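Quick one: structure tokens for this chain, please?
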Amino acid sequence: MNYNVPPPMRINLRPATFADLDLLRHWDEQPHVVESDPNDDWGWETELDRTPEWREQLIAEIDGRPIGFIQIIDPAREDSHYWGDVPANLRAIDIWIGEESDLGKGYGTEMMQLALARCFADPQVIAVLVDPLAGNTRVHRFYERFGFQFVESRRFGDDDCFVYRMNRVDWHHEGVTAAH
């Protein structure tokens, strides 16, 4: 038996609630989070009390300890029209790790696997979109490892971003379930 192999992670996703307000505000101030999302105001005070059909806001936890945040939206139905005019049956994901000390441990990979499983659990969803900052090459490689394909450079508000898309046929979901 190899005692040097860490046990598999068990990340749980739960709905974000107003009780997470202080945590999310704290994470929003962390340099690595600001660096990846410098110009967005998430409006946590309002948004944590809203539960529109087209959005899930989730806290990722390990053994009850919050480690990150995931938002999954239907970009065609989202009320701010952030994505513009997009076809039906897409999803868009925002994802981040809250504390810098939790980076580089595989948490983001498992969180993204769980998020994709949630998206593609709906058989009508044909693809998932992400929009990292154009200069964030580390995150580009992260998405590309999952099979996301670069679509275009695009400006969202004050941010130059790359739009990536993963089509359902390119999703590799061995051993991943949406039930976490």
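The two ends are 28 Å apart (CA to CA).
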